[in-house]
């Protein structure tokens, strides 16, 4: 029996990196009975059947797991947005941040395509990133002329996932970090102002003792696992002061003497974040119960 980490999954074949190499494995039927499946990032025990193949027998306990796309044992998620093509969207950024926080994973904000933005757009984005930094987020703002390696490599610690909608430059970042990778990139559709899904599967790439994952691009985010009562905890600036609200179960919407509503009163950045909070709260409140 050997132990290793799943670094790629395609059509039921799991590439497992062990101390002595990479094995192409399959999952035993027992996982179907348990209604679970191995995912990229899992530490697994597998039985060797030949020199390069085998069968997964056991999945070690996971620290966490993203559902869409499925990746486990993640240390940080780099949420990639673009300054242009597609245009920067703070609402979309906040939605990504909420999803990452919901899995108890640390997000990092990375804005790309600085070279395609106007001077005014650059200034506006820099101002927004400074505001995100003020509430504890680590941020990056990079363009074609920047050394992506110097920007990303210091962040590598365990498994780092690149996430964000299609067309924002995730595959471009990977190609610049791994010269022989040559991932497919895709220009933005003029009609839809978004990219096609160019990454077809999840794969981990080893870098400086850690792993970087490029995930399939997506713009439809899943909030089905988030309850409205816990949403405020996924906004760090609200979570930090909620204990000052008069009511313990304050939703920060209609209750009197709400510390969150008081805090946002004179701060445009907080007001915009609060607006996004209200939109998400309503979406979660109105979703249909699934049986």
UniProtKB/TrEMBL annotation:
<comment type="similarity">
    <text>Belongs to the TRAFAC class YlqF/YawG GTPase family. RsgA subfamily.</text>
</comment>
<dbReference type="GO" id="GO:0005525">
    <property type="term" value="F:GTP binding"/>
</dbReference>
<dbReference type="InterPro" id="IPR012340">
    <property type="entry name" value="NA-bd_OB-fold"/>
</dbReference>
<feature type="binding site">
    <location>
        <position position="250"/>
    </location>
    <ligand>
        <name>Zn(2+)</name>
    </ligand>
</feature>
<keyword id="KW-0479">Metal-binding</keyword>
<dbReference type="InterPro" id="IPR027417">
    <property type="entry name" value="P-loop_NTPase"/>
</dbReference>
<dbReference type="Pfam" id="PF03193">
    <property type="entry name" value="RsgA_GTPase"/>
</dbReference>
<dbReference type="Pfam" id="PF16745">
    <property type="entry name" value="RsgA_N"/>
</dbReference>
<dbReference type="GO" id="GO:0046872">
    <property type="term" value="F:metal ion binding"/>
</dbReference>
<feature type="binding site">
    <location>
        <begin position="164"/>
        <end position="172"/>
    </location>
    <ligand>
        <name>GTP</name>
    </ligand>
</feature>
<dbReference type="InterPro" id="IPR004881">
    <property type="entry name" value="Ribosome_biogen_GTPase_RsgA"/>
</dbReference>
<feature type="domain" description="EngC GTPase">
    <location>
        <begin position="72"/>
        <end position="219"/>
    </location>
</feature>
<dbReference type="InterPro" id="IPR031944">
    <property type="entry name" value="RsgA_N"/>
</dbReference>
<keyword id="KW-0378">Hydrolase</keyword>
<feature type="binding site">
    <location>
        <position position="258"/>
    </location>
    <ligand>
        <name>Zn(2+)</name>
    </ligand>
</feature>
<dbReference type="GO" id="GO:0005737">
    <property type="term" value="C:cytoplasm"/>
</dbReference>
<keyword id="KW-0862">Zinc</keyword>
<comment type="function">
    <text>One of several proteins that assist in the late maturation steps of the functional core of the 30S ribosomal subunit. Helps release RbfA from mature subunits. May play a role in the assembly of ribosomal proteins into the subunit. Circularly permuted GTPase that catalyzes slow GTP hydrolysis, GTPase activity is stimulated by the 30S ribosomal subunit.</text>
</comment>
<feature type="binding site">
    <location>
        <position position="245"/>
    </location>
    <ligand>
        <name>Zn(2+)</name>
    </ligand>
</feature>
<feature type="binding site">
    <location>
        <begin position="112"/>
        <end position="115"/>
    </location>
    <ligand>
        <name>GTP</name>
    </ligand>
</feature>
<protein>
    <recommendedName>
        <fullName>Small ribosomal subunit biogenesis GTPase RsgA</fullName>
        <ecNumber>3.6.1.-</ecNumber>
    </recommendedName>
</protein>
<keyword id="KW-0963">Cytoplasm</keyword>
<comment type="subunit">
    <text>Monomer. Associates with 30S ribosomal subunit, binds 16S rRNA.</text>
</comment>
<feature type="domain" description="CP-type G">
    <location>
        <begin position="63"/>
        <end position="221"/>
    </location>
</feature>
<keyword id="KW-0699">rRNA-binding</keyword>
<keyword id="KW-0690">Ribosome biogenesis</keyword>
<dbReference type="InterPro" id="IPR030378">
    <property type="entry name" value="G_CP_dom"/>
</dbReference>
<keyword id="KW-0342">GTP-binding</keyword>
<keyword id="KW-0547">Nucleotide-binding</keyword>
<dbReference type="InterPro" id="IPR010914">
    <property type="entry name" value="RsgA_GTPase_dom"/>
</dbReference>
<keyword id="KW-0694">RNA-binding</keyword>
<dbReference type="GO" id="GO:0019843">
    <property type="term" value="F:rRNA binding"/>
</dbReference>
<dbReference type="GO" id="GO:0042274">
    <property type="term" value="P:ribosomal small subunit biogenesis"/>
</dbReference>
<feature type="binding site">
    <location>
        <position position="252"/>
    </location>
    <ligand>
        <name>Zn(2+)</name>
    </ligand>
</feature>
<dbReference type="GO" id="GO:0003924">
    <property type="term" value="F:GTPase activity"/>
</dbReference>
């Amino acid at each position: 029996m050997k132990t290793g980490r799943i670094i790629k999954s395609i059509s039921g074949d799991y590439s497992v990196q062990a101390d002595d190499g990479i094995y192409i494995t399959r999952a035993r039927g027992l996982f179907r009975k348990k209604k679970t499946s191995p995912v990229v990032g899992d530490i697994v025990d597998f039985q060797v059947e030949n020199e390069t193949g085998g069968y997964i027998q056991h999945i070690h306990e996971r620290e966490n797991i993203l559902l869409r796309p499925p990746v486990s044992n993640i240390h940080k998620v780099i949420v990639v947005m673009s300054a242009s093509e597609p245009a920067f969207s703070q609402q979309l950024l906040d939605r990504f941040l909420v999803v990452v926080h919901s899995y108890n994973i640390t997000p990092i904000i990375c804005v790309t395509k600085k070279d395609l933005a106007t001077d005014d757009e650059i200034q506006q984005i820099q101002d927004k990133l400074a505001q995100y930094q003020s509430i504890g987020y680590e941020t990056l703002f990079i363009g074609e002329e920047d050394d992506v390696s110097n920007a990303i490599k210091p962040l590598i610690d365990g498994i780092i996932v690149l996430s964000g909608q299609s067309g924002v430059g995730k595959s471009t970042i990977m190609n610049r970090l791994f010269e022989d990778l040559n991932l497919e990139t895709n220009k933005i559709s003029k009609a839809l102002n978004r990219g096609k899904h160019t990454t077809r599967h999840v794969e981990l790439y080893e870098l400086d003792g850690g792993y970087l994952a490029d995930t399939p691009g997506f713009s439809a985010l899943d909030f089905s696992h988030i309850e409205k009562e816990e949403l405020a905890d996924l906004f760090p600036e609200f979570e930090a002061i909620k204990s000052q609200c008069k009511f313990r179960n304050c939703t920060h919407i209609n209750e009197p003497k709400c510390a969150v509503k008081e805090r946002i009163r004179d701060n445009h950045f907080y007001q915009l974040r609060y607006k996004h909070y209200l939109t998400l709260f309503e979406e979660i409140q109105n979703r249909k119960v699934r049986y």
